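Summary of Year 1 activities. Much of the first year was spent building the evaluation harness for sequence design. The harness presents a backbone, in tokenized form, and records the residue chosen at every position. We chose the following record to illustrate the format because it has been used consistently in internal testing since the harness was completed.
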């Protein structure tokens, strides 16, 4: 699946426009930051889901409400 995808730099090269070293580094930095942000979001989401499940299992209503508010805030930042 990944072999058919072209990077931003590849698209520019195929259009006859070559990125400078600075532009390539910037694009790469942005891409790396996006990957890190996505991984962190998924980790936080999974952790909150587990904590919410634990609060439900232990019938801890206060903890459940606190965690679901955090979960909603996390998702509001993603959109």
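For this record, the design step produced the sequence shown next.
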């Amino acid at each position: 699946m990944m072999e058919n995808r072209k990077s931003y730099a590849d698209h520019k090269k195929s259009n006859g426009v070559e990125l400078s070293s600075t532009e390539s580094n910037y694009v790469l930095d942005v891409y790396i930051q996006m990957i890190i942000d996505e991984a962190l979001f998924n980790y936080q989401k999974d952790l909150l889901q587990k904590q919410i499940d634990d609060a439900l299992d232990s019938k801890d209503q206060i903890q459940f409400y606190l965690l679901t508010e955090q979960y909603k805030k996390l998702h509001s930042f993603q959109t």
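The chain has one domain: 8-78. Quantitative recovery figures across the full test set are reported in Table 2.
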